[in-house]
Amino acid sequence: MDLQSFFEVKVFAQYNVFSIPQGLFVTAIGTALPALRAQMMVETDELSVGIVFRDVGIIFGCITAGVLGDLHRSHADIMLGVAMVVGSLCVTFKAFMVQVWSFGAFIFLEGFCHAIMHSSTYIPPSPSPATHTHTRARAHRIALFRYRHK
Questions:
Q1: What confidence tens digit (pLDDT) does each residue in 70-120 have?
Q2: Three-state SS for 149?
Q3: Residue 82 is part of which domain span?
Q4: Which of 19, 21, 40, 122 has its CA 20 to 30 A from that of 8?
Q5: 145 vs 3: CA distance, rounded Å
Q6: How many CB atoms lie within 10 A of CB 80?
Q7: How far apart are CA 109 and CA 125, in angstroms?
Q8: What is the pLDDT of residues 16-70, one digit of tens each?
Q9: Given phi > 0 = left and psi -120 to 50 = alpha, else beta, which region is 128?
Q10: Residue 145 C-alpha from the chain's centroid
Q11: CB 119 within 8 A of CB 30
């Protein structure tokens, strides 16, 4: 199996594996909103301020995943696994929050992990040094050939 087909199979498998926690991240908040409102004894407009933190977490998660993905391409699987575990814990424990600020913190972390899961699925593998050297040598030969045959 060559590198390109391995990458395609890996991306397909990662996408299908993380679609279950992604579905939990997206749908769990909407169905649990009335129960959370009653549990925290707040109005819906106060609870919606906490929900905004999820989008802020997504923004910071995308930036972090992009930087970490560029620096550590070989660890994309680890980033995906950690984001799945931490995000699933956030989905589980946010149902037990009784204060809006703790709910906002957990939902921020949930959005952060959701963005890392989404971004780390598309990190391409780092090219091997042999391929990179071969490509550079080939480009040099082509440029030299064009220079000689003007």
A1: 787 777 778 888 888 898 888 888 888 888 888 889 889 988 988 888 776
A2: coil
A3: 3-148
A4: 21
A5: 29
A6: 22
A7: 27
A8: 666 666 666 666 666 677 888 888 888 878 888 777 888 899 999 989 888 887 7
A9: beta
A10: 45
A11: no
